[in-house]
Write a structure and sequence with these properties.
Blueprint lengths: L16 H13 L6 E3 L11 E3 H9 L5 H17 L4 H7 L2 H9 L9 H18 L7 H27 L16 H6 L4 H11 L5 H12 L4 H8 L3 H23 L1
Antiparallel strand pairs: 1-2
Helix pairs in contact: 3-4, 5-7, 6-7, 6-12, 9-10, 10-12, 11-12
């Protein structure tokens, strides 16, 4: 089977988060020994036993693919991501890219909200949701897409409110977690249950104070990740990874407590 080479961009071109993920995904699929999955997962009568993961994704996203085949394929993708580790989590998140592109193309975002931040928010939400879903859960793909949809709409809402604040229009101000906040400081800002959850997670050593501040300031208060990255002297990508890791631990902790 002939595989197209992975397209390369000049080193000076800046890839968006979706483009960067796509490059990593295609690099796995279009080599001499591509990463494959059983073709029968998405095809009733495949001509070959295994297909590269990019071809699996094409068939998975095609409207003619029957729901039961789609569900079976997603179940196997999630199982591999959970049980086998890298590179399967990358593959699982990359499988959502066609739907994410359509979703984000329809999103009405404020002019001051960069596309890069919206894309990274969507991917981070999928990564967090992936860690929390079960391979046997019905509609596992819809759970991942719904997580991304909620995250980007929260981001857009926060950006609009930030724009209103900067324009001098009235809005509710939640305050800011101070750079040297203690656990007591976090609990003193219990304007919502979310702050209490973060404070308890710090006490339980699930996340540290810096991670709780990161989640609170970006998720609950709508501060842009770019501003926090500059404040902390790290790249936005690093900061998104830190937040995703903290949120995954927090989600696992909350699921465990709920049992």
């Amino acid at each position: 089977m002939h595989h197209r080479p992975v397209p390369r961009r000049p080193h000076t071109a800046r890839l968006s988060p979706l483009e960067e993920l796509e490059q990593s995904f295609l690099a796995l699929a279009r080599t001499a020994t591509p990463l494959t999955m059983p073709a029968h997962l998405v095809c009733d009568d495949p001509s070959e036993e295994a297909w590269p993961v990019d071809q699996i994704r094409v068939r998975l996203a095609h409207p003619s693919t029957r729901p039961e085949l789609r569900a079976r394929t997603w179940s196997e993708v999630v199982r591999r991501a959970h049980d086998l580790g890298e590179p399967w989590p990358v593959v699982a998140v990359a499988m959502t890219v066609p739907v994410l592109r359509r979703m984000l193309s329809r999103l009405a975002r404020p002019a001051h909200l960069e596309r890069q931040e919206v894309e990274q928010e969507a991917l981070a939400a999928v990564a967090v949701a992936l860690a929390g879903v079960g391979a046997g859960d019905p509609g596992v793909d819809r759970e991942l897409f719904a997580a991304a949809d909620r995250a980007v709409h929260r981001l857009v809402y926060a950006a609009r409110r930030r724009g209103e604040r900067e324009a001098g229009e009235p809005m509710v101000h939640l305050g800011r977690l101070r750079a040297r906040a203690t656990v007591e400081d976090l609990e003193g800002l219990t304007v919502s249950d979310e702050y209490q959850v973060l404070a308890r997670a710090v006490r339980a050593r699930v996340v540290d104070v810096a991670e709780a501040q990161l989640i609170a300031r970006t998720r609950l208060q709508g501060e842009p990740m770019g501003a926090l990255a500059g404040e902390r002297g790290v790249s936005m990508r690093q900061l998104y990874r830190h937040r995703t890791a903290a949120e995954q631990r927090l989600a696992s902790h909350l699921r465990h407590r709920a049992r």
